[in-house]
Write a structure and sequence with these properties.
This protein has 254 residues and is of the alpha/beta class. Helix 1 runs parallel beside helix 4 and helix 4 runs parallel beside helix 5. It starts with a strand and ends in an 8-residue tail after the last helix. The strands form two sheets. A six-stranded mixed β-sheet has the order 1-2-3-5-7-10, with helices on both faces. The longest helix is centred in the last third of the chain and has 17 residues. It is globular.
Length: 254
């Protein structure tokens, strides 16, 4: 089969599937570009309320970059522009969910940690092998990972290169859910549908506000809350949400 990123629509949810099972869903250069194109396109579509990223099969989410391509073109692995698609899930305003159906190593780990939520099959695991192969952990492994895990645990994972299994990831708060093998996508769809039922404009600003607190601290995030809270309370979604609550019905947001 051709190594590619498959796209499917499930109502208001876009599902992107990393499909390269012969190489444990490793990313080729073309797949990396394709991921960026598809993420941007989904984010620009007002009909898309959530994006799920998963891997083909039930063995691997992604094993990272295709190592043969990496040896032939070592600059690709550390070029910020070429690797931007792995960081995009955190940068776009649409909520992103990693449905981790197996192991997520190297660039697969980077992609998972840059998603907003992580729903794991029980056989999922994570690893950052950079120190083992002589490469600095990049793509948020130094900057974002300590925000998602206790710093000492993040440090340990990066310098030992050990695997973190799904149950440990859940216990430490890195994973939102652990579900039986083969059920990660279904669980992610259920979560995405809950998100899609809410105000898209508010969901977008919640994500932006959480990024503000991560980058600039609580004081800036507090300013963000008041600024955008005032703006959103004058929007149609606020009127519809409050009216629907009083009328004991489900809101119909724009």
């Amino acid at each position: 089969m051709t190594a590619t990123i498959e796209l499917a629509r499930r109502g208001a949810v876009t599902v992107l599937t990393i499909s390269n099972e012969a190489k444990r869903n490793a990313f080729t250069h073309e797949m990396t570009k394709q991921l960026g194109t598809l993420l941007r396109s989904a984010d620009e579509d007002p009909g898309v309320k959530a994006i799920i990223i998963t891997g083909r099969g039930d063995v691997a989410f992604s094993s990272g970059h295709d190592l043969r391509e990496m040896l032939a073109d070592p600059e690709h692995a550390s070029d910020p522009a070429l690797n931007e698609p792995f960081l995009l899930p955190a940068q776009i305003t649409t909520p992103t969910i990693a449905a981790i159906n197996g192991y997520a190593f190297a660039a697969g780990f980077i992609l998972a940690l840059n998603c907003d939520l992580r729903i794991c099959a029980e056989n999922a695991s994570f690893a950052a092998p950079g120190a083992r192969i002589g490469l600095l952990p990049i793509g948020g492994q130094l900057s974002r990972l300590p925000l998602l895990l206790p710093r000492a645990i993040a440090h340990e994972l990066l310098i030992t290169c050990r695997e973190m299994k799904a149950e440990e990831a859940h216990r430490l708060g890195f994973a939102n859910q652990v579900v039986p093998r083969g059920e990660a996508v279904q669980a992610a769809l259920a979560t995405a549908e809950m998100i899609a039922a809410n105000s898209a404009s508010v969901i977008r600003e919640i994500k932006r506000g959480l990024e503000v607190v991560a980058a600039d601290g609580p004081a800036k995030a507090s300013d963000f809350e008041w600024e955008y809270g005032r703006k959103l309370q004058d929007e149609p979604d606020a009127h519809e949400g409050i009216t629907a609550f009083l009328e004991k019905r489900r809101p119909v947001f724009r």
